[in-house]
Amino acid sequence: MTKRRRKAKSPRKPRLAKPSDRASNPTAHWLHGLAAMGDEQWEEAIASFERFLDLVPEAPDRQRAYRNLAACALAQERYDDALAALDQASRLGPEDPDMAHSRGVVLACAGRTADAIAEFEQSARHWPAAVREYGTQDALQHLRRIQGGEAPAGSYLVDHLQGQIGDNIDLGDWPLVERKGRRMIAADPQRPEGHFALGVACAGQERYPEALEAFLTAHALDPDYVPTLIDLGQAYVQLSQPEQAIPWLERALNRDSKSLAALYQMGQAYRQLDRLEEAADWWRHVLRVDPDHRSAQERLHEIGLAAAPQEPPPPPKRQQMRQMTPIVKARMRHPRVHRSGGLTLTWDGEVGFVLEDADNSHNYTIYTGGPFQTARVPDEDILDLMGVIKQLLRMVDADNTRDIAVLIYYDEQTAFVYQARFEQGERVEFDVDGQFIVTRVPRLFKVRIDSDLVTPYSDPMQGTLIYLNRRSRPGFMINTLGLRAEQPV
Model confidence over 399-433: pLDDT tens digits? Predict the structure, then answer.
């Protein structure tokens, strides 16, 4: 009896998302507002949330929008508008400690000290369990010092901006750092934090004379702050004034003898003086503290005192991944291959994908959690998607339990990698290389977070999201975000 040959199934075609009417789609305005907030584009965010309010009648959704509007107004120091938005949010639903705390912050930043104290005291009485979470007692102590004339009224605003500025520095948002630094100086010129932030921003924009002036002012106000000493030394090195740099770096090393930045810059200063043996000694000192310090290895190689630095052997996990590659590919019945430069993505919607990077051995990803759903992403949604991810990096909290990955690829510019791991609500691992600014598109953007990402306007995102952009236009998205098969993507 002759067996009938089974006809091979053709590869499943990706389902394309239907074009959406963005103007009447509240979700689009909500996401765009979050994206704009993530990039601190406050006017654009306000316009998006106001349009969202025009389209959504449900009270809980409108309450969230008014809270976001309050945050935007506070960032612009439009304090009455921020309070009015919080009042609107209060009318739409029960108040909670977060809303009460926000009102106290607005009043304190506005310099309305007595009103802020009253608000924080009332919040502490109504929600005593939240006092520690929101730092209410610290806020009250600070405000009472202001009320008693022991601190200027603007010092609360300085602390408020100082709490934000670290994220801006991590992301390389130098114009934002500069703007906030100048505002901090205007609020309280006797506090060193604003001058230091201004110096960091100017240095980040290679405006070293201005950076030097700002760091000198910060040092005069706080002579013992080691980062200021290091940055003063580095600014002088960048200005090719090594004789001026060395005393500042020596003072930094007297306080922290293992400061890699100070040790490395000492080598740079002595190299500018053409005292290469002494420069080499400083770089060797760097390597005694951190044997893998690549910049020190490269400087020693450049002056002929060391071999070229070698790439470290891949860790065992990466070796295992490379061994898995042919196994995963062999399981793919209908693999699709996309190449751009040294990057190769091989994927099968029923199996998973393998991302290989010939130019960067550290960039290597395997996922075998298929099947995937695929969809096109319209041009106008790309920055929104990236902005939401940027916002999530800042907002991710203690309830995260799942593993989420995001991969965005572009042809141009440099690589960016962000990795964070959470255990029982605590971030236990953090790694960032490069920068991600929504309006400046990176070549490769990769995020891995333990998370259950839930927004009011989408299904819970549980699984893996991959977005690949080929050439300069959107390509395709691969995801396992907990979506049911019958749902449209």
Answer: 443 444 444 444 444 444 445 555 554 555 555 44
The residue among 27, 30, 26, 95 whose CA lies nearest residue 391 is 30
Strand partners, 450: 403
421, exposed or middle or buried, with CB in 10 Å at 0-12, 13-18, 19+?
A: middle
Q: Give me the residues paired with residue 418 across strands.
A: 432, 447
- Measure the CA–CA gap between 273 and 282, rounded to whole angstroms: 14
Asked if 479 and 466 touch (Cβ cutoff 8 Å), the reply is yes
pLDDT of residue 387: 61
The model's pLDDT over 312-361, given as tens digits with 9 standing for 90+, comes to 666 666 677 678 888 889 989 989 887 766 777 787 877 777 877 776 66
Do the beta carbons of residue 153 and residue 146 sit within 8 Å?
yes
Of the pLDDT bands very low, low, confident and very high (cuts 50, 70, 90), residue 32 is confident
268 pLDDT more than 70: yes
Distance CA 371, CA 331 (A): 13
- Give all strands of the β-sheet with 403-409 in edge-to-edge order: 373-375, 473-480, 464-470, 403-409, 444-450, 415-423, 426-433
Distance CA 62, CA 89 (A): 7
> How far apart, in whole angstroms, are the C-alpha atoms of residue 228 and residue 204?
14
More confident residue, 407 or 457: 407
Q: Is the pLDDT of residue 115 over 70?
A: yes
Whole-number average pLDDT of the chain: 77
CA geometry: angle at 461 spanning 460 and 465, to 5°? 165
List, in order of start, the domains of the chain with CATH numbers. Answer: 22-155 (1.25.40.10), 224-306 (1.25.40.10), 316-367 (no CATH), 373-480 (no CATH)
Long-range contacts of 48-55 (CB under 8 A, 24+ apart): 52/26, 55/24, 55/25, 55/26, 55/29
Enter the tokens of residue 381. Answer: 């949604």
